[in-house]
Design a protein that fits this description.
Distance between the termini: 51 Å
CATH topology of one domain: Receptor-associated Protein
Radius of gyration: 26 Å
Helix content: over 70%
CATH architecture of one domain: Up-down Bundle
CATH class of one domain: Mainly Alpha
Number of strands: 0
Largest sheet: none
Amino acid sequence: MNVMQLLLVAVGLTAVIGLVWAALAGPSPDKESARRLKSVRFRHSQSATDRVEAQMRKAVAARKPRARKIAGSDSRIDALVLRLHRSGRNWTVSQYIYTSVGLCLAVTLLIFLKSGALMLALAFGLFVGAGLPHFVLNKLIVRRTNSFNSKFADAIDLLVRGLRSGLPVTETLGVVAKEVPGPVGEEFKLVTERIKIGKTMEDALQDTADRLAIPEFNFFCITLAIQRETGGNLAETLANLADVLRKRTQMKLKIRAMSSESKASAYIVGSLPFIVYGMIYWVNPSYAGRFFIDERLMVAGIGGGVWMGIGAFIMAKMVSFEI
């Protein structure tokens, strides 16, 4: 058995062990114990803060349960349709698939004509065909989400002014759909259309929250649900929510500015090996092509790629913060 076969066997055994551990490992006893103790503390506590928190949890739990799964949990096609909708582009699943297949075939043919290695060309073609459209779609989703969050606080302020002037909530939602441009106006327009055809406001908002999967909009839905259960001044509650969302956005921008230098360094250091190898392969294909012939070089390349992936993952986690 040669080195390459031993390496494949080792990787396969490691994957099998990981899958068996994931299948047999149950929920954490410590987390379950802490959760039960917390519920008992809320139930029997005399503190006003604990009672308010318990009331909020009860209000959120009392919301109408979903009659169906969130779009994207039934099949991969549903998940792809949901991601295409989140991008804000009028793309269909067939267009996305045709683009991926076309990129795969073009890259495979180009590399095969240049190198003559069919498996290498097929591997690069599959990587580009599956990865590039996915990467572009992720970028579009992130851009639309950022555009939504940048205008959402202003939309809540418009809601607050409408409520303080005496308009009902449904009318103020229609005003936001007309006055606020971009993704916020589009999503609120869909909410008002669902309300007009007979859905309740809570169900219409929950449908939008399930499709968008944006924490800021989930906060908005939970705020309305809690206010409906507990009562109080909705305008004041939404004004406080708008202030919290603005501070949240400011903190995100501050974190992005502080971590931009580290991200740029990681991009440069991570891309240099591939750039250098590409230049060497372009100048002297026979010399660089030994990585795909000599088993020792193949093992060294795989090991270097694995370690680079681990380093990139660690650096990404170091500059990633949840707000």
